[in-house]
Amino acid sequence: MENIIYSIVTHRKTVLFTFLFTAVLCAVFSLLVSVNYNMVDYLPKDAQSTTAIQIIKDEFDGEFPNARVMLTNVSIIEALEYKEKIAEIDGVASVSWLDDIIGLDTLKTTPLEFLDASVIKNYYSYNNALMTLSIESGKEIDAVNAIYELIGENNAASGEAVNTARTQAMAVSEVLNAMAILLPIIVIILIIATTSWIEPLLFLFTIGIAVIINMGTNIIYGEISFITQTVSPVLQIAVSMDYAIFLLHSFNEHRTSHEPQKAMVLAMKQSFPTVAASAATTVIGFAALIFMRFTIGADLGINLLKGVTLSFISVMIFLPVITLMFYKAIDKTRHRKFIPDFKKAGNLLMKLRIPFLVLALLVLVPSFLAQSNVEFLYGTSRIANATRVGKDTLLIKEKFGEENVLVLLVPKEYPGKETELCDALSELPHVTNIVSFATAVGAEIPREYVPEDAVKQFYSESYTRIIIYTDTEEEGVETFTTVQSIIDTAAMFYDTHYLAGQSAALYDMKKVISSDNVIVSLLAIIGIFIVLLVTFRSLFLPLILIFTIETAIWINLSIPYFTGNALSFVGFLIINTVQLGATVDYAILFTNNYLNNKKTYLNKKDAMRITIEDNLAAILTSAGILATAGFALAYTSSNPIISDLGILLGRGTLLSLTMVVFVLPALLVMFDILIQKNTFKMSQSNEINLE
Length: 691
Known about the structure:
Layout: H1 2-10, H2 12-30, E1 34-36, H3 48-59, E2 67-71, H4 76-87, E3 92-96, H5 98-102, H6 104-109, H7 117-120, E4 124-125, E5 128-135, H8 140-151, E6 156-158, H9 160-193, H10 199-216, E7 223-225, H11 226-255, H12 260-287, H13 296-332, H14 345-371, E8 376-377, H15 388-400, E9 404-411, H16 415-426, E10 431-435, H17 437-442, H18 452-456, E11 463-470, H19 477-493, E12 498-500, H20 502-536, H21 540-563, E13 567-568, H22 569-600, H23 604-636, H24 640-670, H25 672-677
């Protein structure tokens, strides 16, 4: 290893050129990476709603409806003219209205009072026309903007595609807004934690290079999710800034007795095990996400895993080079130490350790039970609340009532069986209307006597399409109960059946995520346990450290339950691994230095007091950066998925900090004898002190 280190520090120009060239190249590549804003696309391919949508695309010649447009104060003829213009908009795959159900000639020639009122009311009511659209994936922004321009302010548009367009429009700006808040605060924190005005800039430049390379290398995948696009850069900066701090602190220590190049070689050798162990726990936490069946976890997990690895490489190779190039500037810009020495903190926290331990044990069980019963939100409907989309959604609901459309696909068999199924479906709670060939035309009427366009709405070569209207919201207990009832009813008549629609997709998402959460959490805990086992050569210490952070996680996730707030499932799913992987480093640093101090201070309480005094500043710095990253995401994003994740990350970091500072000392001192008996060989890791 020493030869590699010497090679790095002696070929500084080559290293500098390689990293800068790669960063510029990746900056260009990052512009070519497409972003997917549709959460449903990440469902497993065998999910029944996914299969249903594919059948609709293949056999019914079109996209699944994902938007609605309401036209107010229009006649039948005017509505048909609007429909024709909407259909011509680029990105609009299809427009469905009343004429597609009963036939254009019938609509033009037959007075409405002679038509089936139960069918008419879903499409035309009191001179208001409600049309259903299919907007192509990837064209949502342009298509929705064109629709708004056509229909004006007095009409309304809503639906998943409209929500997606809104998400697309705000995603890039919100990342920039988060960075605009995060970076200045990080600089301030680093200025307080270091003794040079230049060092924070070197830290940010080093990690920034890694972030650019990470985002550019996503070109190998072609596409990433909007969650990855928004969250990944912020999290990468926050969780890997420690690595740079460790290295430069060690470099400054060795500068007191060695010339710069030699000091850097020693610093790299000394920092490598600590930085590698810290990166390993974080990587394992992120790697657990890869095993989610809901593949947005893999999308984010792979990106963050790659990002942390690139940050580690950048810190261990690029940072030494630019530090040696600018060490004179570092020396010239030295300032006094702003961070307090915390010399009295050790005694104070030792006195408080037992009360805080008791408090943690008291809230442990309620927190665990509460976090297991948090209500989750799976859709994106909250995105629209403060926008025109939200206003339009309420307007459509006011005119046509709560309407949730589902599409049931069953094998094309004899009409009588279809009629029996439709009758059974119509009896279900919350089902307001059934539109099928049997209900709209009549099972007794031969298909050859019905206009071909009308027949195509209901039959393909292999399947029958039944449109089901419910009065439920997009998601919720009533919604998911209704979805399950529809599936159960279809199963009574047909062995093969598929249900499509946003609620059906969210129902599948709920089922997949329930199992994903258990698997991902267990994998993260097992992986980090192994890293801790190797690090400390102890069976008992990993249990203490994981218990400390998991308690913080349970408290964090229980808060939405006690406050009566629903939580985005993405935040819940990801925070288990992110908080564990990112904040267990505080416990590792703390424990490692406590074990080292015990060799000098034989009294365990004295060793713990010194450990607190020496490491509190380092932990506060690291936690401050990560918590700031979380809250920056939360308060700059109007996307509730991102804001929920940000709040969980910020709050979770502070809770982990609290547990490590106030509870972990009590556990380490209390179980000191048991730790010694279950330790094969005490870790020889270097003490890290970042005062």
